[in-house]
Write a structure and sequence with these properties.
Keywords: NADP, Oxidoreductase
InterPro entries: ADH-like_C, ADH-like_N, ER, GroES-like_sf, NAD(P)-bd_dom_sf, QOR-like
CATH class of the largest domain: Alpha Beta
Number of helices: 9
GO cellular component, one term: cytosol
Strand content: 25-35%
GO molecular function: mRNA 3'-UTR AU-rich region binding; NADPH binding; quinone reductase (NADPH) activity
Helix content: 25-40%
Domain Enoyl reductase (ER): 11-322
Number of strands: 15
């Protein structure tokens, strides 16, 4: 028997409960994986609360993890028992000690990337790769704005964009987070609780604005992000931590020939070649020191509710991961 966190109803963290589950033999194209580290993300909180109704109930939440292949199903090539793998999935099921997994989404982990590190960075890192290299390809000399620059994805965006030669402006909520953002590569940091973000961006850029604004906050920052754009600037909205964005007039984009996208990372990794290319880019950036990451703060799998409490209260000092107990 394996242990899994089952979600049977939407609600607060207390609805996450550990249950014993049976994991069968892998079918064609599947792997049986013993999971050693499981990532915890805001997406999981949105699924648990019911903000996202994308997991049929009852179901096992979780969208990223790492572990070791135990058994390989028919018609699977290039993977063997004992291989270390990581994955991200829009199909859920990661909050479990063992699971069946489509072999097509399993990524071999290079030496130097532990399973705990993979579970801490894979989703955030692939998201950053998508945002900087696919959605808006950042070029040397460009200026970009990153909201929540001290957050998990924000820090990766700042590090990677600075490495690519961009000038990075970050927004944060405190002086302590400002130091984190500067260490991550922000040339300028705006304390959004104390300063007018649009006015500061215009002052920093001499009135020009930014080539791209990366906004994972949503409702509270959307209008400001749009106002910060230069001619032909690109607003990349990739999250809604403050709530969904109300409908707006598309004609507003015409004022400066701006563009707007709302990318989802799972749509960018649906085919195997794209997934492998993005993972190679991420692992290469890690190996080159373009981005740095730390293994997450670990809690037992059975304490998934506690992990959600820490994440939602902003008390976590590092990425959170869940560890199945032997």
């Amino acid at each position: 028997m394996a242990e899994a966190i089952m979600l049977r109803e939407h609600g607060g963290p207390e609805v996450l409960r550990a249950e014993a589950v049976t994991v069968g033999r892998p079918g064609p194209g599947e792997l049986r994986v013993r999971q050693t580290a499981i990532g915890v993300n805001f997406h999981d909180c949105y699924v648990r609360s019911g903000l996202y109704r994308t997991l049929p109930l009852p179901g096992v939440p979780g969208i990223e993890a790492a572990g070791v292949v135990v058994e390989v199903g028919p018609d699977v090539a290039g993977v063997a028992p004992g291989d270390r793998i990581g994955y991200v999935t829009g199909g859920y099921g990661a909050y479990a000690s063992e699971r069946l997994l489509p072999a097509a989404i399993a990524l071999p982990l290079p030496e130097g990337v532990s399973e705990r590190l993979a579970a801490s960075i894979l989703l955030k890192g692939l998201t950053a790769e998508m945002l900087l290299r696919q959605v808006h390809r950042v070029q040397p000399g460009q200026t970009i704005l990153v909201h929540a620059a001290a957050g998990g994805v924000g820090r990766l965006l700042c590090q990677w964009a600075a490495h690519l030669g961009a000038t990075v402006i970050g927004t944060v909520g405190s002086a302590a987070k400002a130091e984190v953002a500067r260490a991550a590569g922000c040339r300028d940091v705006i304390l959004y609780r104390e300063e007018d973000v649009v006015a500061r961006v215009k002052a920093i850029t001499g009135g020009r604005g930014v080539d791209a604004a990366y906004d994972g906050v949503g409702k509270d920052t959307f209008d400001g992000s749009l106002e910060c754009l230069a001619l032909r600037g690109h607003l990349v909205n990739f999250g809604q931590a403050s709530g969904p964005i109300p409908p707006f007039q598309v004609s507003r984009l015409a004022a400066r020939s701006n563009s707007l996208t709302r990318p989802i990372v799972f749509h960018y990794v649906q085919d195997r070649p794209a997934l492998e290319a993005m993972a190679a880019s991420l692992f290469g950036a890690l190996a080159a020191g373009a981005v740095t990451a730390e293994e997450g703060q670990a809690l037992p799998l059975a304490e998934a509710a506690r992990a959600h409490q820490l994440l939602e209260s902003r008390q976590a000092e590092a990425p959170l991961i869940l560890l199945p107990q032997d």
